[in-house]
Specification:
Mean pLDDT: 94
Low-confidence stretches: none
Organism: Granulosicoccus antarcticus IMCC3135
InterPro entries: FAD/NAD-bd_sf (IPR036188), Flavin-dep_Halogenase_NPB (IPR050816)
CATH class of the largest domain: Alpha Beta
Helix content: 25-40%
Structural class: alpha+beta
Bound molecules: flavin-adenine dinucleotide
Number of strands: 24
Protein name: FAD-dependent oxidoreductase LodB
Largest sheet: 9 strands, mixed
Keywords: Oxidoreductase
Strand content: 25-35%
Number of helices: 12
Shape: globular
Radius of gyration: 24 Å
GO molecular function, one term: oxidoreductase activity
Protein backbone atom coordinates (compact mmCIF):
# COMPACT_ATOMS: atom_id res chain seq x y z
CA UNK A 1 0.00 0.00 0.00
CA UNK A 2 1.31 3.45 -0.90
CA UNK A 3 2.36 5.43 2.16
CA UNK A 4 2.27 9.24 2.13
CA UNK A 5 4.94 9.48 4.86
CA UNK A 6 8.70 9.41 4.44
CA UNK A 7 9.23 6.97 7.33
CA UNK A 8 7.02 3.89 7.11
CA UNK A 9 7.80 2.27 10.44
CA UNK A 10 6.55 -1.19 11.33
CA UNK A 11 5.65 -0.10 14.85
CA UNK A 12 5.21 3.34 16.37
CA UNK A 13 5.20 3.49 20.19
CA UNK A 14 3.89 6.53 22.06
CA UNK A 15 5.30 6.72 25.59
CA UNK A 16 8.82 5.76 26.64
CA UNK A 17 8.38 4.52 30.22
CA UNK A 18 9.25 0.92 31.17
CA UNK A 19 6.48 -0.52 28.96
CA UNK A 20 7.24 1.47 25.80
CA UNK A 21 11.02 1.15 26.12
CA UNK A 22 11.10 -2.61 26.68
CA UNK A 23 8.57 -3.19 23.94
CA UNK A 24 10.70 -1.17 21.51
CA UNK A 25 13.84 -3.11 22.44
CA UNK A 26 12.18 -6.51 21.96
CA UNK A 27 10.49 -5.57 18.67
CA UNK A 28 13.79 -4.22 17.36
CA UNK A 29 15.43 -7.53 18.31
CA UNK A 30 12.79 -9.28 16.21
CA UNK A 31 14.00 -7.24 13.23
CA UNK A 32 11.05 -4.83 13.09
CA UNK A 33 11.56 -1.14 12.35
CA UNK A 34 10.44 0.72 15.46
CA UNK A 35 9.97 4.36 16.40
CA UNK A 36 9.77 5.24 20.11
CA UNK A 37 8.37 8.68 21.03
CA UNK A 38 7.99 10.11 24.49
CA UNK A 39 8.15 13.07 26.81
CA UNK A 40 10.01 13.14 30.11
CA UNK A 41 8.01 12.29 33.23
CA UNK A 42 5.99 15.13 34.70
CA UNK A 43 7.52 14.71 38.17
CA UNK A 44 10.11 12.54 39.81
CA UNK A 45 9.18 9.72 42.15
CA UNK A 46 10.87 6.96 44.08
CA UNK A 47 9.54 3.46 43.50
CA UNK A 48 10.54 -0.05 44.52
CA UNK A 49 11.64 -2.77 42.10
CA UNK A 50 11.76 -6.43 43.12
CA UNK A 51 14.15 -9.05 41.72
CA UNK A 52 11.63 -10.02 39.04
CA UNK A 53 11.93 -6.53 37.57
CA UNK A 54 15.71 -6.84 37.56
CA UNK A 55 15.43 -10.15 35.68
CA UNK A 56 13.22 -8.50 33.05
CA UNK A 57 15.80 -5.73 32.61
CA UNK A 58 18.61 -8.28 32.28
CA UNK A 59 16.63 -10.28 29.72
CA UNK A 60 16.26 -7.04 27.75
CA UNK A 61 19.95 -6.12 28.07
CA UNK A 62 19.08 -2.77 29.72
CA UNK A 63 22.55 -2.07 31.11
CA UNK A 64 21.96 1.63 31.75
CA UNK A 65 18.68 1.03 33.55
CA UNK A 66 20.29 -1.66 35.71
CA UNK A 67 23.15 0.70 36.55
CA UNK A 68 20.66 3.40 37.58
CA UNK A 69 19.02 1.27 40.30
CA UNK A 70 19.42 2.59 43.83
CA UNK A 71 20.09 0.63 47.04
CA UNK A 72 18.48 -2.72 47.87
CA UNK A 73 16.22 -2.45 50.94
CA UNK A 74 13.75 -4.66 52.79
CA UNK A 75 10.22 -3.28 52.45
CA UNK A 76 8.87 -3.05 56.02
CA UNK A 77 5.13 -3.39 56.47
CA UNK A 78 3.06 -2.26 59.42
CA UNK A 79 -0.41 -3.63 58.76
CA UNK A 80 -3.23 -4.23 61.24
CA UNK A 81 -0.82 -3.30 64.04
CA UNK A 82 1.65 -6.05 63.08
CA UNK A 83 5.18 -5.29 61.91
CA UNK A 84 6.72 -7.61 59.33
CA UNK A 85 9.44 -7.55 56.67
CA UNK A 86 8.18 -7.91 53.11
CA UNK A 87 10.06 -8.26 49.82
CA UNK A 88 13.49 -6.93 49.13
CA UNK A 89 13.41 -4.18 46.54
CA UNK A 90 15.72 -1.76 44.79
CA UNK A 91 14.85 1.90 45.17
CA UNK A 92 14.32 3.40 41.73
CA UNK A 93 14.47 7.12 41.10
CA UNK A 94 12.12 7.21 38.17
CA UNK A 95 13.49 10.25 36.31
CA UNK A 96 16.98 8.67 36.22
CA UNK A 97 15.63 5.21 35.49
CA UNK A 98 13.46 6.37 32.58
CA UNK A 99 16.34 8.36 31.08
CA UNK A 100 18.51 5.23 31.32
CA UNK A 101 15.82 3.16 29.57
CA UNK A 102 15.69 5.74 26.78
CA UNK A 103 19.45 5.34 26.41
CA UNK A 104 19.14 1.53 26.41
CA UNK A 105 16.58 1.74 23.62
CA UNK A 106 19.00 3.91 21.61
CA UNK A 107 21.84 1.44 22.18
CA UNK A 108 19.53 -1.32 20.93
CA UNK A 109 19.24 0.67 17.65
CA UNK A 110 15.65 1.76 18.24
CA UNK A 111 14.83 5.03 16.42
CA UNK A 112 13.78 7.60 19.04
CA UNK A 113 12.05 10.93 18.81
CA UNK A 114 11.50 13.01 21.95
CA UNK A 115 8.19 14.81 21.90
CA UNK A 116 4.55 14.82 22.82
CA UNK A 117 2.15 12.54 20.95
CA UNK A 118 -1.42 13.73 20.68
CA UNK A 119 -3.88 12.42 18.12
CA UNK A 120 -2.88 9.34 16.14
CA UNK A 121 -5.22 8.46 13.27
CA UNK A 122 -5.66 5.48 10.96
CA UNK A 123 -5.56 6.85 7.43
CA UNK A 124 -4.66 5.44 4.03
CA UNK A 125 -3.70 2.08 5.47
CA UNK A 126 -1.39 3.25 8.24
CA UNK A 127 -1.28 5.06 11.58
CA UNK A 128 -0.36 8.71 11.17
CA UNK A 129 0.57 11.53 13.49
CA UNK A 130 2.97 14.43 13.83
CA UNK A 131 5.55 14.63 16.59
CA UNK A 132 7.63 17.77 16.95
CA UNK A 133 6.48 18.81 13.44
CA UNK A 134 7.73 15.52 12.03
CA UNK A 135 5.16 13.39 10.18
CA UNK A 136 5.08 9.78 11.35
CA UNK A 137 3.46 6.78 9.78
CA UNK A 138 3.50 3.16 10.84
CA UNK A 139 1.74 -0.15 10.25
CA UNK A 140 1.11 -0.66 13.95
CA UNK A 141 0.60 1.75 16.85
CA UNK A 142 1.13 0.95 20.53
CA UNK A 143 -0.08 3.40 23.14
CA UNK A 144 2.27 3.20 26.13
CA UNK A 145 1.51 6.62 27.63
CA UNK A 146 0.80 5.10 31.04
CA UNK A 147 -2.13 6.49 33.00
CA UNK A 148 -2.05 9.53 30.71
CA UNK A 149 -3.29 7.46 27.76
CA UNK A 150 -6.89 8.39 26.86
CA UNK A 151 -9.27 6.55 29.19
CA UNK A 152 -11.79 5.77 26.44
CA UNK A 153 -11.15 2.04 26.47
CA UNK A 154 -11.60 1.37 30.22
CA UNK A 155 -13.12 -2.07 30.86
CA UNK A 156 -12.86 -2.49 34.65
CA UNK A 157 -11.95 -0.15 37.45
CA UNK A 158 -11.32 -0.79 41.14
CA UNK A 159 -12.57 1.71 43.76
CA UNK A 160 -10.46 4.79 42.98
CA UNK A 161 -7.37 5.70 44.98
CA UNK A 162 -5.87 9.14 45.32
CA UNK A 163 -2.10 9.25 45.87
CA UNK A 164 -0.67 12.44 47.38
CA UNK A 165 3.10 12.56 47.65
CA UNK A 166 6.12 14.80 48.07
CA UNK A 167 9.88 14.71 48.59
CA UNK A 168 11.38 15.54 51.97
CA UNK A 169 14.97 16.28 52.95
CA UNK A 170 16.46 15.01 56.20
CA UNK A 171 19.93 14.06 57.42
CA UNK A 172 21.95 11.43 55.53
CA UNK A 173 20.88 8.01 56.77
CA UNK A 174 20.47 4.32 55.90
CA UNK A 175 18.08 3.67 53.01
CA UNK A 176 14.68 2.19 53.86
CA UNK A 177 11.20 1.59 52.48
CA UNK A 178 7.89 0.61 53.97
CA UNK A 179 4.12 0.69 53.98
CA UNK A 180 1.83 1.52 56.89
CA UNK A 181 -1.94 1.44 57.21
CA UNK A 182 -4.04 4.11 58.91
CA UNK A 183 -7.77 4.69 59.31
CA UNK A 184 -8.22 6.53 56.00
CA UNK A 185 -5.83 4.48 53.86
CA UNK A 186 -2.15 3.63 53.80
CA UNK A 187 1.19 5.28 53.19
CA UNK A 188 4.37 4.30 51.35
CA UNK A 189 7.72 5.84 52.16
CA UNK A 190 11.18 5.34 50.70
CA UNK A 191 14.37 6.95 51.93
CA UNK A 192 17.65 7.38 50.05
CA UNK A 193 21.08 7.42 51.75
CA UNK A 194 21.39 11.19 51.06
CA UNK A 195 18.44 11.79 53.41
CA UNK A 196 15.80 12.42 50.74
CA UNK A 197 12.53 10.67 51.54
CA UNK A 198 9.46 10.24 49.44
CA UNK A 199 6.24 9.97 51.41
CA UNK A 200 3.04 9.10 49.58
CA UNK A 201 -0.38 8.92 51.23
CA UNK A 202 -3.12 6.82 49.57
CA UNK A 203 -6.78 7.50 50.35
CA UNK A 204 -10.17 6.72 48.86
CA UNK A 205 -10.84 8.86 45.77
CA UNK A 206 -14.60 9.01 46.38
CA UNK A 207 -14.55 10.29 49.95
CA UNK A 208 -11.42 12.43 49.40
CA UNK A 209 -11.92 14.88 46.55
CA UNK A 210 -8.56 16.28 45.35
CA UNK A 211 -8.09 19.64 47.07
CA UNK A 212 -7.28 22.80 45.15
CA UNK A 213 -3.61 23.51 44.46
CA UNK A 214 -3.56 26.19 47.16
CA UNK A 215 -4.82 23.74 49.78
CA UNK A 216 -2.79 20.72 48.72
CA UNK A 217 0.11 21.24 51.12
CA UNK A 218 -2.05 21.59 54.24
CA UNK A 219 -4.22 18.67 53.10
CA UNK A 220 -1.11 16.48 52.65
CA UNK A 221 0.35 17.47 56.03
CA UNK A 222 -2.97 16.77 57.67
CA UNK A 223 -3.04 13.26 56.14
CA UNK A 224 0.47 12.62 57.46
CA UNK A 225 -0.59 13.76 60.92
CA UNK A 226 -3.26 11.01 60.90
CA UNK A 227 -0.60 8.32 60.58
CA UNK A 228 1.84 8.18 63.52
CA UNK A 229 4.52 6.26 61.65
CA UNK A 230 4.44 8.60 58.64
CA UNK A 231 4.68 11.61 60.95
CA UNK A 232 7.64 10.06 62.80
CA UNK A 233 9.52 9.37 59.56
CA UNK A 234 9.41 12.98 58.33
CA UNK A 235 9.51 14.75 61.70
CA UNK A 236 13.11 15.99 61.31
CA UNK A 237 12.82 16.68 57.57
CA UNK A 238 11.55 19.58 55.49
CA UNK A 239 9.50 19.53 52.31
CA UNK A 240 11.62 19.79 49.15
CA UNK A 241 8.78 20.26 46.67
CA UNK A 242 5.10 21.05 46.75
CA UNK A 243 2.98 17.88 47.03
CA UNK A 244 1.45 16.39 43.89
CA UNK A 245 -1.57 14.17 43.28
CA UNK A 246 -1.58 10.94 41.25
CA UNK A 247 -4.61 8.85 40.34
CA UNK A 248 -3.52 5.42 41.56
CA UNK A 249 -6.29 2.78 41.43
CA UNK A 250 -6.22 -0.58 39.66
CA UNK A 251 -7.84 -0.42 36.23
CA UNK A 252 -7.87 -2.30 32.99
CA UNK A 253 -8.50 -1.04 29.46
CA UNK A 254 -9.14 -2.85 26.18
CA UNK A 255 -5.58 -4.06 25.42
CA UNK A 256 -6.10 -4.52 21.66
CA UNK A 257 -8.57 -1.86 20.52
CA UNK A 258 -8.01 -2.86 16.87
CA UNK A 259 -6.11 -5.31 14.67
CA UNK A 260 -3.05 -3.04 14.38
CA UNK A 261 -3.32 -1.17 17.64
CA UNK A 262 -2.47 -2.22 21.20
CA UNK A 263 -2.08 -0.65 24.61
CA UNK A 264 0.95 -1.55 26.74
CA UNK A 265 1.88 -1.21 30.43
CA UNK A 266 -0.30 1.03 32.59
CA UNK A 267 -2.26 2.11 29.51
CA UNK A 268 -3.61 -1.47 29.40
CA UNK A 269 -3.38 -2.54 33.05
CA UNK A 270 -2.55 -0.03 35.79
CA UNK A 271 -1.92 -1.57 39.21
CA UNK A 272 -2.83 -0.48 42.70
CA UNK A 273 0.56 0.78 44.03
CA UNK A 274 0.04 -1.54 47.01
CA UNK A 275 1.09 -4.37 44.66
CA UNK A 276 4.55 -2.76 44.52
CA UNK A 277 5.44 -4.22 41.13
CA UNK A 278 3.76 -2.07 38.50
CA UNK A 279 7.05 -1.57 36.66
CA UNK A 280 7.67 -5.31 36.47
CA UNK A 281 4.12 -5.97 35.30
CA UNK A 282 4.46 -3.28 32.60
CA UNK A 283 7.75 -4.75 31.36
CA UNK A 284 6.56 -8.38 31.46
CA UNK A 285 3.38 -7.49 29.57
CA UNK A 286 5.46 -5.69 26.93
CA UNK A 287 7.66 -8.74 26.42
CA UNK A 288 4.52 -10.80 25.74
CA UNK A 289 3.09 -8.07 23.53
CA UNK A 290 6.24 -8.03 21.38
CA UNK A 291 5.61 -11.66 20.35
CA UNK A 292 1.93 -10.90 19.69
CA UNK A 293 2.73 -7.91 17.45
CA UNK A 294 5.39 -9.84 15.57
CA UNK A 295 2.88 -12.63 14.95
CA UNK A 296 0.22 -10.16 13.79
CA UNK A 297 2.63 -8.53 11.33
CA UNK A 298 4.57 -11.58 10.08
CA UNK A 299 2.03 -14.40 10.31
CA UNK A 300 -1.40 -13.01 9.49
CA UNK A 301 -2.88 -16.52 9.68
CA UNK A 302 -2.20 -16.43 13.45
CA UNK A 303 -3.07 -12.74 13.98
CA UNK A 304 -6.40 -13.42 15.71
CA UNK A 305 -4.74 -16.04 17.91
CA UNK A 306 -2.13 -13.48 18.97
CA UNK A 307 -4.76 -10.83 19.71
CA UNK A 308 -6.78 -13.24 21.84
CA UNK A 309 -3.63 -14.38 23.62
CA UNK A 310 -2.75 -10.82 24.68
CA UNK A 311 -6.33 -9.95 25.62
CA UNK A 312 -6.63 -13.08 27.78
CA UNK A 313 -3.30 -12.42 29.44
CA UNK A 314 -4.29 -8.86 30.47
CA UNK A 315 -7.76 -9.97 31.53
CA UNK A 316 -6.39 -12.79 33.72
CA UNK A 317 -3.76 -10.54 35.28
CA UNK A 318 -6.39 -7.95 36.15
CA UNK A 319 -8.58 -10.45 38.02
CA UNK A 320 -5.61 -12.11 39.73
CA UNK A 321 -4.27 -8.75 40.92
CA UNK A 322 -7.72 -7.52 41.98
CA UNK A 323 -8.29 -10.59 44.16
CA UNK A 324 -4.74 -10.60 45.57
CA UNK A 325 -5.18 -6.93 46.51
CA UNK A 326 -8.53 -7.69 48.17
CA UNK A 327 -6.87 -10.45 50.26
CA UNK A 328 -4.17 -8.04 51.42
CA UNK A 329 -6.70 -5.33 52.29
CA UNK A 330 -8.65 -7.94 54.29
CA UNK A 331 -5.60 -8.49 56.51
CA UNK A 332 -6.13 -5.01 57.96
CA UNK A 333 -8.84 -5.51 60.59
CA UNK A 334 -8.68 -2.31 62.68
CA UNK A 335 -11.11 -0.15 60.73
CA UNK A 336 -13.72 -2.40 59.07
CA UNK A 337 -16.31 0.41 59.17
CA UNK A 338 -14.05 2.99 57.47
CA UNK A 339 -14.99 3.41 53.84
CA UNK A 340 -11.42 3.03 52.54
CA UNK A 341 -11.23 -0.49 53.98
CA UNK A 342 -14.86 -1.60 53.60
CA UNK A 343 -14.85 -0.67 49.90
CA UNK A 344 -11.74 -2.75 49.20
CA UNK A 345 -12.13 -5.80 51.41
CA UNK A 346 -14.91 -7.35 49.30
CA UNK A 347 -14.12 -6.02 45.84
CA UNK A 348 -14.15 -7.47 43.17
CA UNK A 349 -15.83 -10.71 44.35
CA UNK A 350 -15.34 -13.65 46.70
CA UNK A 351 -13.42 -15.89 44.26
CA UNK A 352 -10.01 -17.15 45.45
CA UNK A 353 -7.01 -15.19 44.17
CA UNK A 354 -5.03 -18.38 43.61
CA UNK A 355 -7.30 -21.36 42.90
CA UNK A 356 -5.93 -24.46 44.62
CA UNK A 357 -4.81 -27.41 42.48
CA UNK A 358 -7.51 -30.10 42.39
CA UNK A 359 -5.91 -33.55 42.38
CA UNK A 360 -6.59 -35.62 39.29
CA UNK A 361 -8.54 -32.95 37.38
CA UNK A 362 -6.81 -31.89 34.19
CA UNK A 363 -6.75 -32.38 30.47
CA UNK A 364 -4.54 -31.95 27.44
CA UNK A 365 -5.84 -29.25 25.12
CA UNK A 366 -4.66 -27.13 22.20
CA UNK A 367 -4.06 -23.55 23.35
CA UNK A 368 -2.00 -20.56 22.12
CA UNK A 369 1.44 -20.21 23.71
CA UNK A 370 4.38 -17.88 23.22
CA UNK A 371 7.26 -19.76 21.62
CA UNK A 372 10.42 -18.40 20.00
CA UNK A 373 8.91 -14.93 19.71
CA UNK A 374 5.66 -16.03 18.03
CA UNK A 375 2.22 -17.03 19.27
CA UNK A 376 1.32 -20.55 18.15
CA UNK A 377 -1.11 -23.27 19.10
CA UNK A 378 0.44 -26.05 21.16
CA UNK A 379 -0.71 -28.91 23.34
CA UNK A 380 -0.91 -27.77 26.97
CA UNK A 381 -2.02 -29.23 30.29
CA UNK A 382 -5.02 -27.34 31.63
CA UNK A 383 -6.38 -27.80 35.12
CA UNK A 384 -8.48 -25.81 37.63
CA UNK A 385 -5.56 -23.69 38.92
CA UNK A 386 -4.23 -22.96 35.39
CA UNK A 387 -7.38 -22.89 33.22
CA UNK A 388 -5.59 -21.34 30.19
CA UNK A 389 -3.17 -24.25 30.26
CA UNK A 390 0.50 -24.72 31.05
CA UNK A 391 2.82 -25.52 28.22
CA UNK A 392 6.23 -25.65 29.88
CA UNK A 393 7.52 -25.85 33.43
CA UNK A 394 11.11 -24.65 33.53
CA UNK A 395 12.11 -25.40 29.95
CA UNK A 396 10.29 -28.72 29.78
CA UNK A 397 7.16 -29.09 27.58
CA UNK A 398 4.68 -30.93 29.80
CA UNK A 399 2.92 -32.94 27.11
CA UNK A 400 6.22 -34.25 25.71
CA UNK A 401 7.29 -35.15 29.24
CA UNK A 402 4.01 -37.01 29.82
CA UNK A 403 4.55 -38.95 26.59
CA UNK A 404 8.07 -39.92 27.72
CA UNK A 405 6.72 -41.05 31.13
CA UNK A 406 3.99 -43.07 29.39
CA UNK A 407 6.53 -44.81 27.13
CA UNK A 408 8.59 -45.72 30.20
CA UNK A 409 5.51 -47.07 32.00
CA UNK A 410 5.84 -44.49 34.82
CA UNK A 411 8.37 -41.98 36.18
CA UNK A 412 11.81 -43.54 35.50
CA UNK A 413 14.47 -43.93 38.18
CA UNK A 414 16.73 -40.90 38.77
CA UNK A 415 19.75 -42.32 36.90
CA UNK A 416 17.58 -43.11 33.85
CA UNK A 417 16.20 -39.57 33.93
CA UNK A 418 19.72 -38.15 34.18
CA UNK A 419 20.86 -40.25 31.21
CA UNK A 420 17.83 -39.07 29.22
CA UNK A 421 18.44 -35.39 30.13
CA UNK A 422 22.11 -35.65 29.15
CA UNK A 423 21.00 -36.54 25.61
CA UNK A 424 18.23 -33.90 25.40
CA UNK A 425 17.77 -30.12 25.78
CA UNK A 426 15.98 -30.58 29.10
CA UNK A 427 17.98 -29.68 32.23
CA UNK A 428 17.58 -32.34 34.94
CA UNK A 429 16.54 -29.71 37.51
CA UNK A 430 13.72 -28.51 35.25
CA UNK A 431 12.55 -32.07 34.60
CA UNK A 432 12.40 -32.57 38.38
CA UNK A 433 10.33 -29.37 38.74
CA UNK A 434 7.99 -30.43 35.92
CA UNK A 435 7.47 -33.89 37.44
CA UNK A 436 6.75 -32.31 40.83
CA UNK A 437 4.25 -29.93 39.16
CA UNK A 438 2.40 -32.87 37.58
CA UNK A 439 2.64 -35.04 40.71
CA UNK A 440 1.15 -32.28 42.92
CA UNK A 441 -1.90 -32.34 40.67
CA UNK A 442 -1.97 -36.17 40.39
CA UNK A 443 -1.57 -35.82 36.62
CA UNK A 444 1.46 -38.03 35.93
CA UNK A 445 -0.70 -40.48 33.98
CA UNK A 446 -2.63 -37.82 32.02
CA UNK A 447 -3.23 -38.72 28.35
CA UNK A 448 -4.75 -36.84 25.44
CA UNK A 449 -8.06 -38.45 24.39
C1 LIG B 1 1.65 6.53 43.33
C2 LIG B 1 2.25 5.37 42.59
C3 LIG B 1 3.27 4.62 43.19
C4 LIG B 1 3.84 3.54 42.51
N1 LIG B 1 4.83 2.80 43.11
C5 LIG B 1 5.38 1.75 42.45
C6 LIG B 1 6.42 0.97 43.03
O1 LIG B 1 6.86 1.22 44.14
N2 LIG B 1 6.95 -0.05 42.30
C7 LIG B 1 6.51 -0.35 41.05
O2 LIG B 1 7.03 -1.29 40.42
N3 LIG B 1 5.53 0.37 40.48
C8 LIG B 1 4.96 1.40 41.14
N4 LIG B 1 3.97 2.14 40.55
C9 LIG B 1 3.52 1.75 39.21
C10 LIG B 1 4.49 2.21 38.12
O3 LIG B 1 4.76 3.58 38.25
C11 LIG B 1 3.85 1.94 36.76
O4 LIG B 1 3.22 0.70 36.75
C12 LIG B 1 4.86 1.96 35.61
O5 LIG B 1 5.53 3.19 35.56
C13 LIG B 1 4.15 1.72 34.29
O6 LIG B 1 5.01 1.92 33.21
P1 LIG B 1 4.45 2.47 31.81
O7 LIG B 1 5.60 2.52 30.91
O8 LIG B 1 3.26 1.70 31.42
O9 LIG B 1 3.90 3.94 32.14
P2 LIG B 1 4.70 5.24 32.62
O10 LIG B 1 5.84 4.87 33.47
O11 LIG B 1 3.68 6.15 33.17
O12 LIG B 1 5.29 5.82 31.26
C14 LIG B 1 4.51 6.52 30.35
C15 LIG B 1 5.41 7.45 29.59
O13 LIG B 1 4.65 8.10 28.58
C16 LIG B 1 4.97 9.48 28.59
N5 LIG B 1 3.83 10.20 28.04
C17 LIG B 1 2.65 10.45 28.62
N6 LIG B 1 1.86 11.16 27.80
C18 LIG B 1 2.57 11.34 26.67
C19 LIG B 1 2.29 11.99 25.44
N7 LIG B 1 1.13 12.59 25.20
N8 LIG B 1 3.24 11.98 24.49
C20 LIG B 1 4.42 11.36 24.70
N9 LIG B 1 4.74 10.74 25.84
C21 LIG B 1 3.82 10.73 26.81
C22 LIG B 1 5.24 9.80 30.05
O14 LIG B 1 6.01 10.98 30.19
C23 LIG B 1 6.01 8.55 30.46
O15 LIG B 1 7.37 8.69 30.16
C24 LIG B 1 3.38 3.21 41.22
C25 LIG B 1 2.36 3.95 40.62
C26 LIG B 1 1.79 5.01 41.31
C27 LIG B 1 0.69 5.78 40.64
Amino acid sequence: MKSPCPTPYDVFISGSGPAGSLLAIHLQRFGLKVLLCGTARRFDSLEGMTERGVLALRASDCKNALASLGPLVLRQARWSGEQFGGNQEYLVQRSEFDKALWQDAGEADVDRLPGRVDRVIWQEGCWQTTVDKQPICARYWVDARGRQAPANAMLQQAPGILGVGAWWQGAATTPAAGITSFADGWCWYARLPDGRTQMQMFVDATTHRPPSRAQLRSYYLQLISQCDEAAAIVQDSHLLIEPYVRGSGLNYSEPMPGPFHARAGDAALALDPLAGHGMFEAMALSMTLASCIRTQLDRPENAQLAMNFYRDRVHDEFWRLARTGRDFYQLETHWPEHSFWSRRQHWPDAEPSHPAPEPGIGQIEIRPVSINGYIENRQVVSCPDTPRGTWVVGEVPLVELLEYIRQKGGVPARQDLEAFCAGSDWPMQSVGAAITWLAQRHLLDLRSD
